[in-house]
Amino acid sequence: MGHHHHHHHIDSTTGKIKTAFFLNFFFTIIELIGGLLTNSMAILSDALHDLGDSLSLGLAWFLQKFSRKEQSDHFSFGYRRFSLLAALINSVVLIVGSIFILTEAVPRVLNPEQPNAGGMIALSILGILVNGAAVFRLKGGDSMNQKVMTWHLLEDVLGWVAVLGVSIVMLFFDVPILDPIASIGITLFILYNVVKNLIQTMRLFLEGVPSGVDLEGLSRKINNLTDVQSTHHTHLWSMDGENHAFSTHIVVRAEATKEEICKVKEEVKEILHPISLEHITLEIEYEDEPCSLQ
């Protein structure tokens, strides 16, 4: 019964991401056409943001299903890391897109063109409604994928609120320069967040110690245990930013008993308990035997 419930929960996450993906994707197409028709850089930069989110949602939907696959002969740790791959691809796409938008928007600041403010207002109201619906659909998710997506879409709603504000002002006043300025603001905001995520993703790809975990402190606690002589080859890395793996070699006295070794293992697991570890590998060595990795 419990097993069935677990699958239902994951399927509901996949379903939510799927709905949000289709909402977002169709709207992105409307937006790109609308941006070109209204001659608005702000709408085009928001379209880029939405395109990035559609990609993220599409990959998240696909990988939410894919990463549930059990381990195989080829991927002994399972398929969790594929979600990192999605994050990496999305980041690169968004960075390239953002740079393109900036190359278009900066000349417009020097030589502003009048966009169609009425069309911009209509599109931005639609944008707020569609992205709002997608946020509502994804709200309250447990998976990291779902939480990240919810934030993405909330940012979109804010972007559209900014476009709405700018277009209302331009409807009454002749200030076409506001459009490229809004565009640059939105794009820089996207770039800042994307680069931040890219750095985190690269850290995980390069097997960096997960942020927020004090590896030195953990090693110290393990070394302070009564029956532990020393530790070496201690490693901590992450599969996908949520599920981590830990391994270490623990040296015990030459005459340590089976009970003492079992006790050490329990104590070490207790120390590691606060971190969400998927895999723990503890190699026990007696002080008079050479380390297999030396």
UniProtKB/TrEMBL annotation:
Q: How does it sit in the membrane?
A: Multi-pass membrane protein
GO CC terms: plasma membrane
In this chain the Cation efflux protein transmembrane domain maps to: 18-204
> Which domain of life, per UniProt?
Bacteria
GO MF term set: zinc ion transmembrane transporter activity
Pfam families, per the entry: Cation_efflux
Q: Where does the sequence pass through the membrane?
A: 21-41, 47-63, 84-105, 117-136, 157-175, 181-199
> Which keywords annotate this record?
Membrane, Transmembrane, Transmembrane helix
What compartments host this protein? Membrane
The protein in question is named Cation transporter
